[in-house]
Amino acid sequence: MLDAGNSGELVEKLPDPWHRVDASGEADRLIQVLEEADLAPGWAELRHTWLEYSGVRPGDRVLDVGCGTGVVARDLVERVGERGKVVGVDPSERLIEVAVRRMEEEGLRERIEFRCADGAALPFPDGSFDLVVASAVFGHIPNGPEVLAEMVRVVRPAGTVVAFDHDIDMIVINAADRDLTRRIVHAYCDRYFTSGWAGRELYAMFREAAVEKIQVLPLMHTSTQFEPYWKRMVERISSVAVKTGVVSEQEAGVWRGDLERKGREGRFFASRSYFCLRGRTPGAAR
Q1: Minimal CB count within 10 Å: which of 8, 77, 223, 277?
Q2: What is the extent of the structural domain holding 139?
Q3: How does pLDDT run across 243-275, given as a tens digit for each residue?
Q4: Contact, 95 vs 68, CB < 8 A?
C-alpha cells in the first residue's frame, strides 16, 4: 500500500503484521518470535531490567496491555507473589490462546488471567490496577494516545503507568556500506512499523496524557554474535527494503553477505535501542 512519508511523498508501505496479528497471515511466525524472546542472548536480562524499573511490588494488581503470548505476564506473576494479580489483554485471539496454554503448562492458572480485548477499550472499571504496563506495543498501533488514555484510566490514583518500546531508526548494524545500511534500516522503520519512532515519541505522549513524575530509562540490546535472532533480523529488514523498492535484491544480497562474513570472522556488531517510561497517575498515594 502507499502511505505519506515524512516529506509528504507517497511511499510503498507494508502492512504491520503486529497491528492485526490474526489477519496478517503470519501469526505462526509472530508467535515464534515472541516465545523465542527468552532464548536469544540478553533479551531476558533486558526484560528483567525494565520490569525492575517499573517498581512492581508483591501484592500489586498489574495489567499487561498487548500481552502477546504472555512472556511479560509470566515474569510479572513471580514479582507480585501469591497476594498479587496479573491480567493480560491482547486483541489477537491466536496470541491469547497460546498465552493460556503456556500459563496452564506452567501451572499458573490461578495467578494470571488472560482476555482478548482492545487496548483502546479496556474492559475494566476506573482505578482497577496498581500498575499497568505495555511492552513493545506503541510501535505497532496507530492510536497510541487512545491506548495510553485507557491505561491511565484503569490505574488507581497515584498508580504507575509503564511503557517499554523500541526506536527502530536507532538500530545499529556495523555493515561495510554505510549508505546502504541507512537505507535498509530507515525502510524497516518507516515502511514496516506503524510507528517506528515510538521510543522517542512516548515522552510527549505521557505529558499529553497528564501522567506525572515521568522518568525515562534508556536501554540497549547489543550483540557481537551473528546468532539466530540477528540472522532473522538481517533477513527481515533487508527483505522489507527490497519489497518496498528501496534497495535491489542484489544490493540486499551483498549487504547480507557482508554481515554473514563478519559473523564467521567474529567481527559482527549490532544493537537495538529501547526506552522505558514510568509515570504516576494524579491523586493521593494509598
Answers
A1: 8
A2: 8-168+194-222+272-280
A3: 999 999 999 999 999 999 999 999 999 999 999
A4: yes
